[in-house]
# Entry
Amino acid sequence: MNKNIILTAAALLVILVSMIIMVQPTMRDKYTAGYETGNASDTIKLPSPVYDSEVSIEEALYKRRSIRGYKDEPLELAEVSQLLWAAQGITDLRNLRTAPSAGALYPIETYLVAGNVSGIAAGIYKYNPHLHELVKVVEGDKRAELCDAALGQAFVGDAPAAIVFSAVYERTTGKYGERGTQYVHMEAGHASQNVYLQAVSLNIGTVAVGAFNDDEVKAVMEMPANEYPVYLMPIGRK
Ligand SMILES: Cc1cc2nc3c(=O)[nH]c(=O)nc-3n(C[C@H](O)[C@H](O)[C@H](O)COP(=O)(O)O)c2cc1C
# Structure
């Protein structure tokens, strides 16, 4: 009797473990869809974000300013990680994020244009918020080209890195029609303000840049056809 119970329990355990092993790759696939890379070495696991600091939200709001002059010093990967998390990080088991989104449809994609970031090669990376990872999409230092695309605003090329927000409008307009276009732009504003406030807390300078040539930024970033740039934010030490 006891032996039968033990055998049944063992069989159930084996079935359960097999099911977990079978389901796990499916879950990873779900979270890498849209962030695929042909080469595993092109994926960079980011340091975990921190959820506390010495700077209050009131102080961050009070001190937030657009900063266009940056030291010629590298940014740490942990700093970049924290800024990306502030922009679009996952903060909830239901996959909700730091910034609100109409219908929780999340049309905003987030890129890092890295020129001088410790521990990662110069290149353009896409942020996968689900796994808090960067996926390389373009090799090499593209800051000068991004600067040209941003109507030659020199600080875009001088900054060690830039966060670039793009939008996949159809995710939101599919549900909300034309009004969805407005929602997408509102959401880019939320993400941008999160970066501004997080930057104050990290003592990093940034500025929201809306003056750029859409087609040129899209080309430099090698964005998929259904993605359009909405905001650039150079980041660097003040
Ligand atoms: C939608 C939008 C677009 C902007 N585009 C640019 C830009 O292309 N270049 C720039 O230097 N600053 C840009 N800014 C930053 C503003 O110039 C800045 O917010 C303003 O001067 C107020 O300064 P503050 O942010 O320090 O309060 C933009 C700001 C917003 C909200």
